[in-house]
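Following up on my earlier thread - several people asked me to post the actual chain instead of describing it. Fair enough. Here it is, all 260 residues.
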Amino acid sequence: MIYNFPDSKYLVVCGDIHGDFNQLVYKVCMQYQMRDTVVVVAGDCGFGFERMGYYENIVKRNSKRMKESNNRIVFVRGNHDNPAYFDGNTFCHQRFVAVPDYSVIRVGGHAALCVGGAISIDRNYRIAAWSNACLLNKKPVAQNDALAPNYYWSNEYPVFNPQLLDQVLSENTIDVVITHSAPSFCELKSKLESNGWIVDDDLYQDIKNERAVMDKLYEKLKGTSVTHWCYGHFHQSWHSSIDGILFKMLDIMELFEVRQ
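Reply from S.P.:
Thanks for posting it. Predicted structure:
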């Protein structure tokens, strides 16, 4: 899908927000007094831990402030997000929208390709925590409700879709890539080394596969018009210019303006 924002001037990318929607709006509109800006959250937005009405109330609470400053927020899928929200329709408002993978954001002369997904290194913890919460609250796990609250979604992984990517590249001159994870040559090289999560037998391979998807994406995009690649997921800040592309890792709630 292509999202055009002709009345916006600036493209800003934000790191993980983990459900702090109101804080992000305050930071953008009040603390930094941004105007005419599209802010793209590079995954781990926080969709799915509450019922749908919770997120609709966030829109109602913040729409006036966002309209007055002519700002918008676009959400890209992270591993700590329910993918069901990211179909372009389920959460789609004038000032807030959760977009599907391989969407293109056009703003301020930029065309940004968005590809979400990653592997949760804390998945065992989250699965167990949700089971315990259901037992304590005596609530059955919803089987047929794609938007039912949960702590973990097994279809969190990123997907390489070469056919869709070819179509995107044939229709757009992409200069910015926004993903949740990153190619294997980018920092952090491993998210497991500095964390004490319970590691299951498949976790290392799943993370390797996650980065391999990003590598495939990079191989298709290198040598094209791409100048910036922004991502979150690793909860640290880092940047480096590699093969003519500025790779920017964003810390939690870190903001980065993409300039020409």
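Helices lie at 21-31, 52-68, 123-137, 162-171, 203-221. That should answer part of your original question.
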